[in-house]
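Milestone 3.1: sequence recovery, worked example.
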């Protein structure tokens, strides 16, 4: 058995991120890292858990964030790499110095997706992404559209992809980010900067994931993410804004 995960090397660089609710933009300096050329496929997921894939080359979907995290650890262990994550119940810790498979941070994902482009798409959308305009009713085999200049396929369209980061802990507590848009989404959702997310146990027919690799000389902070920033983002001073549901 082999996970046969193909990775692309992404050089160091910078990317600007945007949080629409907080109306803030910030720049992230990134160290080099690796990221999957394709989303993880049904075949790769099934191989890891001892099942048979009904559509081997389609992206693995209906995969929760927690299951994606566990896939990363299993793939690391199979290849003799240091697992990146440890668990305390459903609380997950990222050991950023470990060299195994992991989910990309939001900053890594967007930087890799853009491949130098500052536009919403890295090419004509009908040529690079499966969207609602194609009229398909399910995810399509990976690699069926053109790649970006990093050689990555399907970062836009086909399926959304889980990232490591929290979506908006002040409002949505433990929700994690997914990026990129899916086969049923209209063009306005299928953009390099669009952020959505769901609870760690949620799974959807149009959400999958793509793995990354890269360890860093740091603790609880790397590639645009930090545990301290998560705590600061979760803090709310004063009453909840109108329309918010209390967390808890």
């Amino acid at each position: 058995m082999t996970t046969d995960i193909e990775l692309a090397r992404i050089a160091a660089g910078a990317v600007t991120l945007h949080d629409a609710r907080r109306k803030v933009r910030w720049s992230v300096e990134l160290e080099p890292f690796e990221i999957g050329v394709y989303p993880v496929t049904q075949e790769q997921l099934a191989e890891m858990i001892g099942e048979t894939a009904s559509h081997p080359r389609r992206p693995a979907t209906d995969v929760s964030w927690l299951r994606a995290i566990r896939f990363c650890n299993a793939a690391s262990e199979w290849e003799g790499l240091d697992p990146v994550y440890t668990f305390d119940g459903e609380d997950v810790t990222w050991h950023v110095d470990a060299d195994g498979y992991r989910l990309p941070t939001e900053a890594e994902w967007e930087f890799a997706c853009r491949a130098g482009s500052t536009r919403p798409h890295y090419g004509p959308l009908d040529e690079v992404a499966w969207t609602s305009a194609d009229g398909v009713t399910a995810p399509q085999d990976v690699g069926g559209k053109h790649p970006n200049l990093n050689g990555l396929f399907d970062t836009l369209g086909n399926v959304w992809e889980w990232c490591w980061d929290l979506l908006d802990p002040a409002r949505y507590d433990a929700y994690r980010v997914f990026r990129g848009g899916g086969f049923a989404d209209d063009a306005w959702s299928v953009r390099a900067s669009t952020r959505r997310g769901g609870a760690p146990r949620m799974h959807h027919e149009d959400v999958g994931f793509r793995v990354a690799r890269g360890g860093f000389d740091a603790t609880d902070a790397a590639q645009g993410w930090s545990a301290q920033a998560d705590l600061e983002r979760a803090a709310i001073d004063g009453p909840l804004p109108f329309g918010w549901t209390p967390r808890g």
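The first strand starts at residue 7 and ends at 10. Residues 72 and 101 are 5 Å apart (CA to CA).
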